[in-house]
Amino acid sequence: MNMLMTSRLNGWIALGLACLLGTGCASQAMPDPSYAAVRPAAITPADRSNGAVIHVDRAVSLFEDFKARHVGDLLTVVLTESTNASKQASTSTAKDSSIQMPGPTIFGRPVTSGGAEIMELDIESAQEFDGEGASTQRNALNGSITVTVAEVLANGYLVIQGEKYLSLNQGEEFIRIRGIVRPIDIRANNTIPSTLVADAQISYGGAGVIADANDMGWGSKFFNRFWPF
Questions:
Q1: Residue ranges per domain, the chain?
Q2: pTM over 0.70
């Protein structure tokens, strides 16, 4: 029993050393099942009757567009996200005060020692504070992603969701989006800007060797979080 526990302990120690040395413990991005493409419901085809001129399988509708409107239809979202936020604050205060209290007199004469008054009180104080802070943040995300219609709401709005996953040489990158769009906002080429997606949830990230190198180590995170100085 002791040998088994010792073997397991050695295994955990080896795994921990491998993680610390970066040999096989790099983070990995995986597709999220909640953003998976939604397939349309199966529809039983109706009986077809071909005429002498028109063949049903080759007929082309002259009054039909190809915009997304049903569950499972594709829609391309053009990402045009840009944010620019800044904040600045400045505070300055100053306060001066002074108190003078003459010394008491006894039998009409001040209390002295060596010819100098010893009970006279003179207090002065000065307080000053200057504070200034500034914060600026800019973000931009451009590109496009094709998603599927996951649900058609009662008012005709479309719930869309989708994910784009890229596996590169030294890591993985992904972008996910979910939201609600109005069919009237869909352009003729079946695209819609991300600024017109309501309740938009857009995620962009990556994992792998490059992402790990750009991330702070767990030891540094620990001390930065709990170190009080």
A1: 27-38+58-85+138-226, 88-134
A2: no
